[in-house]
Amino acid sequence: LAVSLAIKGKRVLIIDADLRHATLSDYVGHNKIGLTDYLSLRADAPNILPTPLMGYENLFVVPVGTESDNSIEFFENERLQTLLDHYRQQFDYILIDCPPMNIIADSLIIEQLADQIMIVLRVGVTNKNTIRELENRSNKKDISLIINSVSDLKQRYYYYKA
Fold it and tell me: Is the pLDDT of residue 152 over 60?
């Protein structure tokens, strides 16, 4: 999604907020000052400059930063909102990569700051009860479900609107 938006000329920022796995940070090779450093008062917003993603002119990443075990405490303070307000002036889209919402509370806290929620569901992995839980929460905010790992053997197109 971020790459598609960047290719269309939109300035896109991805914030890696999956503090336990930091998959995005590992993927793009950023192991430097990042989100945790800002949220734990070890760095100011200007010091965690978004790093351009090589090969994409308009795509930037804020890595996780220094490892820490106190993620819930990080997200419960006002600094994340301040950081988002700071970046909203510079970017057309800000995507926050979070851990699975049914496993870790971080996503539930970050959700309160989001304009839109997109949840990736994996065929054969996501439990049906999780989908029911999402449906119950959808009254609070708009939730988009993205389904991946669909076998292309079925060759069918489905559309469902709740």
Answer: no
